Amino acid sequence: MSDLKVLKFIVRGEIQPYFPEDKRGNIWLLNMWYYSPTLKQVEKFLNVSWVNKRTYMDEVWECEHYGCELLADARESHLRGLGLQLLVNCRHYTRFLVEECKITKDEALPWSLYWVITNGHTLNIVRTRDKGFKLIEPQTDRIWTPDKNDQNLLLAIG
Fold it and tell me: pTM for the whole thing?
């Protein structure tokens, strides 16, 4: 998994073993290419992300909100880290970013981080280029390696 950028079809194939066979159609990847961060980059992002600082409130700010906001914050933070203040998905602006901001197309790609639903909970999963797939508990920033034998992922979006 050492690729700096990865095609969505590769991610789909690599992530499928974590899903039960009847749920493998529930992997919705919205971009053609993704940037695979290192585990250190993910940890650094989690240290500055605001998402886990929110207070859980029934029917107001629940686990699915944490997972969805962590995905959005990762993509915004990646752009801010490149010196940009855009609050939009960068795939529509790749040409602008490369020509005007002088960054590489690979740097402009959204992170290979996805919002996932498991049996009764929402998490995030990230494809790192140095340590493979890692699950993230967005409420606490805990990171661990998923177990392919569990196959408890039911939906992935990102």
Answer: 0.79
- The 3-state DSSP composition of the chain as helix, strand, coil percent (nearest 5) reads 35, 25, 40
Contacts by 18-22, CB closer than 8 A, 24 or more apart: 18/125, 18/133, 18/146, 18/148, 18/150, 18/151, 18/152, 18/153, 19/151, 19/153, 19/154, 19/156, 20/151, 20/152, 20/154
Domains in the chain, number:
1
Q: Using one digit for the tens of pLDDT, what is the confidence trace for 93-145?
A: 444 444 555 556 566 667 788 888 887 788 889 999 899 999 999 889 999 99
CATH number of domain containing 12: 3.30.460.70
- Per-residue pLDDT reduced to its tens digit, 50-69: 888 888 888 777 778 888 88
